[in-house]
Amino acid sequence: MASQPEVRVRRARREDAEAIIALEQLFPGDRMSDRAIRRLLGVPSAAAWVALRQRWTCGALVMTTRRGSTIARIYSLVVHPEARGHGLGIRLVHAAQTEARKRGCRTMSLEVRADNQAARALYERLGYHLHACLPDYYEDGETGLRLRRTF
After folding, report:
1. How many contiguous H segments (helices) and E segments (strands) does the chain have?
2. Residue 24 in 3-state DSSP?
3. Range list of H helices, the chain
4. Band of the pLDDT at 4, cuts 50, 70, 90?
5. Tens of pLDDT along 57-108?
């Protein structure tokens, strides 16, 4: 069995925008717009990370915070299907949680599709719990689930 090339996780930079945009296209709907991605990569209230296998960006996470709030939000997490199953989602979430704590946040919040069993299982393994059910949350009418984890 051939070993996989090492994957490293680092803070995203403005020049990572195109790769993050390409990853966002993997979502069936409710994607971040190109404009939103470019904006979030340049504002202090957001932070993003990319997972790189050699020069291929195979995962990304965008987190937002608000001044005066102790709740950070995972705005988007995506791992390319060919890179799944190697713990990249966990590594990206851990990077975001570490930064959220540095910013004084005590809780991480996110929304996930009720029908996204893989993502829900990932977040459950990481200690996230149901905070609210959001009927008709997604553009196709799918229910959203707001999950939270306190540090």
Report:
1. 4, 7
2. helix
3. 17-24, 34-40, 88-102, 117-125
4. low
5. 999 999 999 999 999 999 999 999 999 999 999 999 999 999 999 999 999 9
What's the start-to-end Cα distance of the chain, in Å? 38
In degrees rounded to 5, what are phi and psi of residue 78? -145, 135
SS3 119: helix
Retrieve residue 35's tokens. 């404009």
Structure tokens, 100: 């959220």
Q: Are 144 and 138 in contact (CB under 8 A)?
A: yes
How far apart CA 49 and CA 137 sit, in angstroms, is 26
Superfamily of structural domain 7-108: Gcn5-related N-acetyltransferase (GNAT) (3.40.630.30)
CA distance 86 to 128: 20
Percent of the chain with pLDDT over 70: 97
Q: In the numeric block, which tokens belong to residue 22?
A: 């390409």
Tokens, residue 63: 């987190």
- With contact defined as beta carbons under 8 Å apart, do 111 and 145 qualify? yes
In this model, does residue 2 exceed pLDDT 60? no
